[in-house]
Design brief:
- The chain is α/β, with parallel strands linked by helices.
- The protein has one domain: Ribonuclease Z/Hydroxyacylglutathione hydrolase-like (Metallo-beta-lactamase, Chain A).
- It contains six helices and 16 strands.
- The strands form three sheets. Strands 6-5-4-3-2-1-16 form a seven-stranded mixed β-sheet. A seven-stranded mixed β-sheet has the order 7-8-9-10-13-14-15, covered by helices on one side.
- The longest helix has 17 residues.
- The chain is globular, with a radius of gyration of 19 Å.
- The model has no long low-confidence stretch (mean pLDDT 94).
- The chain binds zinc ion (2 copies).
């Protein structure tokens, strides 16, 4: 498996001299798994990815499996600029959650209505298919792709890819569970079994959900995690749906993950601030006596998962 980062920014593209090293485009991650092209999210980073795919294909048909964590703008705004979707004979399969009020296909076509964009989605010449998913595991050949809802003000997924004994997890946009409303009962499925658990208060509730998330990430070769904020900044941004490095390390440690990529850099995160966040996280890992490799997701960074 090869992972390549095309967009690592959260909220809004943030180009400029101060973000040139880590990149200013919003979320898009490419995975090459065997012969398949799998993409996580269609932030503005999907535009340069599309151009690269066109160059590679040299006119041959392109098939892309595009998994959307959620439909906030920073995760879909690049789709109208994804050139392969305009070319006949290409095939783009978009996976994501329906909302209660709107199916996935309308969530996508809505941003291309004339109030927002000059070209409607029906002008896309490729076969563009929408597949609504929930928490499940689907197969593309020998590749397994699992989805799990995470804590964000939207229907938002984390995704896990398993192939040939290796795995990558992209946690999507996620906030620590202790900011969720209290529940007294928790129900979820693990390995096909339905679990109903009585919960005593908020703390136990968030601990249980952390365990569920850690189980989802278990032994992944790479965990890509939302660390938009720092621990200091987080109290001012509670409820906005994002995490900070100490929490990412907590989940990585629970899951036995050895490689952690920090992503969804905040628009105010200059290259220097991202460097400082990585340095701080490495120190935190060291002082916690853990051995987890930590780095920041960066435009153009390519990783071999083998
Ligand atoms: Zn986001
Ligand atoms: Zn979001």
């Amino acid at each position: 498996m090869k992972v390549r980062f095309w967009g690592v920014r959260g909220s809004i593209p943030s180009p400029g001299a101060e973000t040139i090293r880590y990149g200013g485009d919003t979320t898009c991650i490419e995975l090459r798994v065997g012969n398949e092209i799998i993409v996580f999210d269609a932030g503005s980073g999907i535009r340069p990815l599309g151009l690269k795919l066109m160059g590679e294909a040299q006119g041959a048909p392109i098939k892309v499996h595009l998994f959307i964590t959620h439909t906030h703008w920073d995760h879909i705004q690049g789709f109208p600029f994804f050139v392969p979707a305009f070319i006949p004979n290409n095939h783009i399969i978009v996976y994501g959650a329906d909302h209660e009020t709107m199916p996935l296909s309308e969530l996508f076509s809505g941003q291309m209505e004339r109030e927002y964009f000059p070209i409607p989605i029906v002008a896309m010449g490729a076969k563009v298919e929408f597949t609504s998913i929930s928490e499940e595991t689907l197969k593309i050949g020998d590749i397994e792709i699992s989805s799990m809802f995470v804590n964000h003000p939207s229907m938002a997924f984390a995704y896990r890819i398993d192939y040939n004994g290796h795995s990558v997890v992209f946690g999507g946009d996620h906030e620590p569970y202790n900011n969720m409303l209290s529940y007294s009962k928790l129900a979820y499925q693990v390995n096909g079994k339905q679990l109903d658990i009585e919960v005593n208060g908020q703390e136990e509730f968030s601990q249980l959900l952390d365990k569920k998330l850690a189980l989802f990430c278990q032994d992944a070769d790479l965990l890509i995690f939302d660390t938009a904020y720092t621990l200091d900044l987080y109290p001012q941004r509670e409820g906005w749906g994002h995490s900070y490095p100490e929490y990412a390390v907590h989940i990585a440690n629970m899951a036995g993950v050895k490689r952690l990529a920090l992503t969804h850099h905040d628009p105010t995160d200059t290259d220097e601030k991202v460097d400082a966040k990585v340095k701080h996280t490495r120190q935190f890992i060291k002082s916690s006596k853990l051995s987890i490799e930590c780095f920041a997701a960066q435009f153009g960074l390519e990783l071999d998962i083998e």
